[in-house]
Every structure is written in structure tokens, then in C-alpha cells.
Structure to design on (183 residues):
């Protein structure tokens, strides 16, 4: 019998593989077996690191959720009180949607999977809470949540309708919400 090799990156490789499987085949195509095959690890490795498919999906969603947050962090404008909040948010959406489209679609596919998989709901909510929290440094919590809802809605419309993202429209709509908070 071969000695077991220590492989600290195996868990991460399985998550990356799960994300690739969902990207290629949708959530319905993800199983412990398909993730193991994609990661080129024994089936027992996936079940060792992720007892259930929901655990694997939670890990994949948590990782996928980083996409939008990374764009916001790299731009840095949301933190700056001198920037136009609506314009900065609209610009971040545009940059995110113009980036890796598969990654964006995957984020939403995993996010919407929470409708049918209650185990994913807390992670889906984490994303909205994180964005709302960063926005509430610039506005009140109710306005921050409204901005997140509009960002979500506009991004979903772009993904589902195939209509190109219109940054000036997004800036206008987001600006109305921000202006309404000041009244």
C-alpha cells in the first residue's frame, strides 16, 4: 500500500474544480464524483473535505462571491468620501461585468441556487451584507441595502437579457437612490 501523500492544496483544488464543473455544466452537473474527476483526486478526497454537496457548494459560493468585492477593493473609490458614490458603484459594476463573464455568471448561478438550497442562504446573504456594510460608510444602512438591491437587479437583467450594460443608466438610477437619502 502506498503511503498517503500530504496534500495541503487538495481542498482548494477541489473547490476550484467544483467551480469549473458548475461553470461548464451548471449546478445540476456538480457531484462529489464530478468534482473529484475534475480535480484529479480520489472520490474519497472530496467526501473527506466536504461531507455533503451543500458543503462543497457553500465553499464554491464563498470563493465565487469574492469577484465583485475584489473589483470594489481594487478601485478603492467607495471608501473615498470625495468620489460620487453612484458613479463609483456604476463603474465597479461595469468593470465586474466586463471581466470574466463565466465568473460573473457563476457567482449568480451559485447565489440563486440558495433559493432551493437553504444551506447556501447564509453565504448568499454574506455577499449582500458585505457590500451593504462597505456602502454604509458613505450613506445610511437603508440606502446601502437599496443600492445593493439595485446593483443585483441591474446585473441580473444584463446577464439574463443579453442587453449590454449601460453605465450611464446605472449611475442615474443609483444616483436617484443616493439623492433620495439626502432629502
Amino acid at each position: 500500500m502506498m503511503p498517503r501523500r500530504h496534500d495541503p492544496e487538495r481542498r482548494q483544488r477541489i473547490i476550484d474544480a467544483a467551480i469549473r464543473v458548475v461553470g461548464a455544466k451548471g449546478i445540476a452537473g456538480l457531484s462529489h464524483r464530478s468534482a473529484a474527476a475534475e480535480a484529479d483526486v480520489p472520490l474519497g478526497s472530496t467526501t473527506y473535505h466536504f461531507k455533503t454537496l451543500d458543503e462543497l457548494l457553500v465553499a464554491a459560493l464563498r470563493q465565487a462571491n469574492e469577484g465583485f468585492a475584489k473589483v470594489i477593493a481594487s478601485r478603492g473609490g467607495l471608501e473615498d468620501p470625495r468620489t460620487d458614490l453612484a458613479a463609483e458603484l456604476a463603474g465597479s459594476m461595469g468593470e465586474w461585468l466586463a471581466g470574466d463573464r463565466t465568473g460573473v455568471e457563476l457567482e449568480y448561478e451559485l447565489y440563486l441556487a440558495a433559493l432551493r438550497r437553504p444551506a447556501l442562504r447564509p453565504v448568499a446573504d454574506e455577499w449582500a451584507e458585505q457590500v451593504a456594510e462597505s456602502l454604509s460608510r458613505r450613506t445610511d444602512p437603508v440606502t446601502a441595502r437599496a443600492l445593493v438591491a439595485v446593483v443585483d437587479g441591474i446585473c441580473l437583467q444584463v446577464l439574463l437579457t443579453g442587453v449590454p450594460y449601460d453605465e450611464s443608466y446605472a449611475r442615474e438610477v443609483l444616483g436617484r437612490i443616493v439623492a433620495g437619502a439626502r432629502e
Remarks:
- The two ends are 73 Å apart (CA to CA).
- The chain has ten helices and no strands.
